[in-house]
Structure formats: structure tokens, C-alpha cells
Amino acid sequence: MVRIRPAAIADVEAMVGLLKELFTIEGDFEFDAAKHRRALAMMLARPEEAHVWVASQGEQVVGMCSVQCLISTAEGGPVGMVEDLVVAFAMQGRGIGRRLLQAVEDWARVNGLLRLQLLADAANRPALAFYDRCGWSATRLICRRKAQLQWMDKNAI
Length: 157
Ligand SMILES: CC(C)(COP(=O)(O)OP(=O)(O)OC[C@H]1O[C@@H](n2cnc3c(N)ncnc32)[C@H](O)[C@@H]1OP(=O)(O)O)[C@@H](O)C(=O)NCCC(=O)NCCS
Hints:
It is built from five helices and five strands; from the N terminus they run E-H-H-E-E-E-H-E-H-H. The protein is α+β, with helices and mostly antiparallel strands. It has a single domain (2-156), classed as Aminopeptidase (3-Layer(aba) Sandwich), CATH 3.40.630. It has a five-stranded mixed beta sheet, sandwiched between helices. Helix 1 packs across helix 2 (33-44). The longest helix has 15 residues, at 96-110. Coenzyme A binds at residues 22, 25, 85-87, 92-98, 120, 124, 126-127, 129-130, 133-134.
């Protein structure tokens, strides 16, 4: 039986393994175990800002998903950014991804989030089809980013 439950620090290594599967698919990201481990520990330490779920089967972690809170001027209150949704390849197609998203939606409702949003790789057609099936609509927004801001260098000048 697969159970959806809040992640614990003991799940971090298994989650890093799942993120390897995810970041191998998504061309904008590079797998870096140390970075993912650090970020997961930060999320687990800040329950008022972030929440992480795992899907577990016995001792094994077979899926995960996270949400982080932002304040939206458009919505006039808190919204959630969903990330890190991945189900182990061998366990895909059994409703686990849908259940993970449902857990996020239930948590968002209880915690007063006014909207949930996520980013997906435009080339990840299976994931886009999955989100369609789960009732997540597409928007006209696209993502831009400026990575690796050099704060330290600037301050040193
Ligand atoms: C995308 C992913 C999370 C979906 O999880 P999953 O457990 O395989 O999906 P589910 O079994 O819960 O499917 C839920 C619904 O989506 C549909 N669906 C899932 N994958 C699909 C696909 N490739 N094409 C079309 N529909 C799909 C299912 O048929 C199901 O529909 P239904 O309940 O109406 O019958 C999973 O495949 C995965 O981890 N992929 C690799 C990582 C990834 O791409 N993550 C998303 C990053 S944005």
C-alpha cells in the first residue's frame, strides 16, 4: 500500500534519489546531491514557509512533492509554488502523482492559500498531459531567470 505523508529528515536521501530522476528529465536543471540535500533540510526546518510530502511503500520512498508559500499581489494573499513532483519510474501510472497533488491541494486549503502554481519543462509532454488530467490549467506566463547572482563579488568591489 502506498501512503502519502509529510516528509521527515530521514527521507532526505531517498528524496535526493528521486530528484536525480526529475532533474535528468528537466533540461534547465543539473543534479547536485549536496545542493538538493541542503535545500530539502531547509524546507523541513521551515514548516511555516514550506511543506514536503513523500509517497511511501513500506520503508521505501517512491514519490515526493513540495510547496512553498509566497504573497501574491494579484490574489491579495498567500499562494503556493509547487515543485519537486516526481514518482519513481517503476511506480508511475498508479495514481501516486495525483494523490501527491491532492495532498498539496488539501494542505493549501487548510492553510488559506489562494492559488497554487507550478513550472513545467515545455518539452515534458507526459507531465503536461498529467497536469491536464489533474485539472491544472495552462497560463500565458513564461519563466525567465537570472541565475547565480554574484552578491559576494559585488559587495567586495
Ligand atoms: C508526472 C508524474 C509525477 C505523474 O505521476 P503518476 O503517478 O505517474 O501519475 P498518475 O498515475 O497519478 O496519473 C494521474 C492522471 O494523469 C494521467 N497521466 C499520467 N501520466 C500521463 C501521460 N504520460 N500521458 C497522459 N496522461 C497521463 C493518468 O492517466 C491519470 O489520469 P486519470 O486519473 O484521469 O485516469 C510522473 O509520471 C513523474 O514522476 N514523471 C517524471 C518526473 C516529472 O516529469 N515530474 C513533473 C515535473 S513538472
